[in-house]
Design a protein that fits this description.
The chain has one domain. The protein is 27% helix and 50% strand. The protein has a 4-stranded antiparallel sheet, with helices on one face. It is α+β, with helices and mostly antiparallel strands. 6% of the residues are buried. A hairpin with a 4-residue loop joins strand 2 and strand 3.
Length: 84
């Protein structure tokens, strides 16, 4: 059950491999539909054993834009934190 009480159906719609800050990462894109047909797009990147970066949006174009902006900064932040 989704936190608002609606059933969500999730489907993997794509995988993209990227290279950022001397590391290779795989971005998994999902589409979640509720019973009303409303869609939510999600991206998920594993950056460690127990560490993921997950972003959501209501359109795939907006999600890809967010990923392009946020992912490099989030990865750099994690690298800087681990160097302390």
């Amino acid at each position: 059950m989704h936190k608002w009480g609606q059933i969500m159906f999730t489907k993997l719609i794509g995988i993209k491999k990227i290279h950022i800050h001397d590391g290779d990462y795989e971005i998994r894109y999902y589409r979640k539909n509720n019973l009303n047909g409303n869609a939510l797009f999600t991206s998920e990147v594993n950056v460690g054993l127990n560490d993921k970066i997950i972003l959501d949006d209501h359109s795939m174009a907006s999600l890809e834009y967010k990923v392009d902006l946020v992912l490099p900064i989030a990865l750099y932040s994690r690298m800087a934190r681990n160097c302390r």
